[in-house]
Amino acid sequence: MSIGYDLLNAWLGVVMPDLQDMRRGIERMPIAEIAPIVRSAVNDETALVEPGWSVETISVISEGNGTLGFIRVLGTAVSAGSTVNWKSVVKVIDLGADGHWEDAEGTFEFPGNEVGMYRSGFFDQVDGRFKAAPCHGVIDIDCLALLWLADLSESITHPWSGEQFIMASRALGYFNGSWPEDRAPAGDWLERQFVTNRPRFARDAGWFDRLDLEEDAKLLADFGSKAGIDDITSMRSKYNEIADAASRVPRVISHNDPHSRNAFIVNESGVPTVYGIDWATIGMGPVGYDGGTLAGGGLIWRRDEARLIRDIEGTMFDEYMSGLGDAGFVSDRDQVRLGFLSNFAIYPMAYLLAVVGMPDGQFSKNFSERFELEGDEFIDELAVRMGWFKPIFDEAVVLARQLG
User: Fold this and answer.
1) pLDDT tens-digit series, residues 292-306
2) Is the N or the C terminus of the chain less surrounded, counting Cβ atoms within 10 Å?
3) From CA 51, how far away is CA 48, in angstroms rounded?
4) Considering the entire predicted model, what is its pTM?
5) Is residue 49 a part of any domain in this protein?
6) Both 191 and 281 in a single domain?
7) Measuring CA to CA, which residue among 209, 306, 336, 190 is closest to residue 254?
């Protein structure tokens, strides 16, 4: 559904809306415009929308490139003679947003990919227990897109238990294994190049360049000593080996950023289903990468979650492999393990960036807030975690050299 600024102005009285303008505009939407979305939400093509829906902006942990914000909408409709409640979360996307990274090999995190994916109907073909959050409709307003998504706020809360991480790992393996490169559908929304959002992006963006500078050598050496690690200053060059080798792993359709805060587990008739959000990164990625992202994402939250991942990452990988097998994907275990570790390995590298305060202190600030620690306690926590996860980084280096 496309709406020009002339109709938008009738709702809003403004030319270039911000999120609060969009909230007020949705409150004033004509029933005829919102009716198809409501009918999808209640699964009744004849439902009658009742006027007077409520609208509120909602906060989230982080917003991806091009996302202006989120708005929750709740209302009622008459379906089969009864009044029923309906709700949706509107993701407001600026399709003209700058800041996405691209080079001759592809684009990373282009917001239009998520819109195109939903419009393509791709997930109508997807079975298994990892899916995109249901979308009830898309409204275009010139360079803006409003994705009317299912409200997943009643899903299982974060942080997940070990059983939930393990279940989600198998579901991700089945999703990736169902869509090897030769089965990938046509469409501009699916990036064809190696566009995973961390290994090559982090390397090519120069995030780790400072780690070689003399002024940081003593700081890093002291940190390495605290973590019980001698060769910490060599990690940057070794990480480059991992990123390069991962680009040669067989590729599958990947979410490319399915950490647990980008996923929600919903029990449907007693069967848990994992719904992914934030699909701007969807594209071809190395098999295993999504599983490693799910595991690795736990390294940047409170200690209990990081410790849990330390204890179960091997089981998560095994279940991911089982999911690939369930989908009929024939794979070399070492290649999948390298794909799995290619993103997992970036988190120990990010710990180093947090120690030296690069780039622009963003890792230090974000990790400190999520660890709920500051100062020396924060650095001590980084050292403990580096001791836990450096062996996994070293395993990735070994695999990269074997398979490179």
Assistant:
1) 999 999 999 999 999
2) N
3) 10
4) 0.91
5) yes
6) yes
7) 190
Indicate whether 116 and 61 sit together in one domain: yes
Percent of the chain clearing pLDDT 70 (strictly above): 88
Q: Are 137 and 40 in contact (CB under 8 A)?
A: yes
Residues 6+ apart with CB under 8 A from 246: 196, 199, 286, 289, 338, 339, 342, 400
Q: How far is Cα 397 from Cα 116, in angstroms, rounded to an integer?
A: 36
With respect to residue 233, please indicate whether it lies within any of the assigned structural domains. yes
Q: CA geometry: angle at 293 spanning 291 and 358, to 5°?
A: 160
Mean pLDDT is lowest, of 29-38, 169-178, 183-192, for: 183-192
- Say if residue 271 is exposed, middle or buried (CB neighbours under 10 Å; 0-12, 13-18, 19+): exposed
- For residue 14, the enclosing domain spans 2-149
- Of 240, 218, 239, 237, nearest to 356 by C-alpha is 218
In this structure, are 114 and 186 located in the same domain?
Answer: no
Collapsing DSSP to helix, strand or coil, 2 comes out as strand
Which two structure tokens, joined as six digits, stand for 204?
């090519």
Contact 221, 232 (CB under 8 A): yes
CA 337 – CA 25 distance, rounded (Å): 48
Domain containing 367 — which CATH number?
Answer: 3.90.1200
Please tell me the distance from the alpha carbon of residue 375 to that of residue 372, in angstroms, as a whole number. 11
Residue 169 shares a structural domain with residue 145: no
Same domain flag for 144 and 167: no
Average pLDDT, whole number, for the chain?
Answer: 88
> Cα dihedral sign for 288, 329, 404, 109?
negative
Residue the block writes with tokens 């969009």: 22
